[in-house]
Amino acid sequence: AVCPAHIIRPSGRFNRQGYEVMETEGRCTGCASCALMCPDVAIRVFKSKKTEKTA
C-alpha cells in the first residue's frame, strides 16, 4: 500500500528468519517507502551501479 509504483507484493513464501518474501513487478524507483514503513525493519533498498553497454 505504501509503494507509489504499486510493484511490491507478498509472495506467500517465507525466508529462514520467518519473513515473507516480497516480489516486485515492474521497475522499482528506489524511493524506500517500503523500507521506512516496514514494522519489522526487514526491507532494505539498495541502489546498484548501472553497467554501461559497449557497442
How far apart are the termini? 41 Å
Helical content class: under 10%
Strand order of the largest sheet: 1-2
Number of strands: 2
Tally of alpha and pi helices: 1
Largest sheet: 2 strands, antiparallel
Average pLDDT: 77
CA radius of gyration: 13 Å
In percent, how much strand structure appears in the residues? 15-25%
Low-confidence stretches: none
The coarse overall form would be globular
Compressed to H and E, one letter per element, the order equals EEH
Summing up helix and strand content along with how strands pair, one would put the structural category as: mainly beta
Question: What does this protein structure show overall?
Answer:
The chain is mainly beta and 55 residues long. 9% of the residues lie in helices and 22% in strands. The chain has one helix at residues 33-37, and strands at 8-14, 20-24. It has a two-stranded antiparallel sheet with strand order 1-2. A hairpin with a 5-residue loop joins strand 1 (8-14) and strand 2 (20-24). The longest helix has 5 residues, at 33-37. The radius of gyration is 13 Å and the shape is globular. The chain starts with 7 loop residues before the first strand and ends in an 18-residue tail after the last helix.
Structure characteristics:
single chain, 9% helix, mainly beta, 55 residues, two-stranded antiparallel sheet, globular
Short description:
With 55 residues, the protein is mostly beta strands. Helix content is 9%, strand content 22%. It has one helix spanning 33-37, and strands at residues 8-14, 20-24.
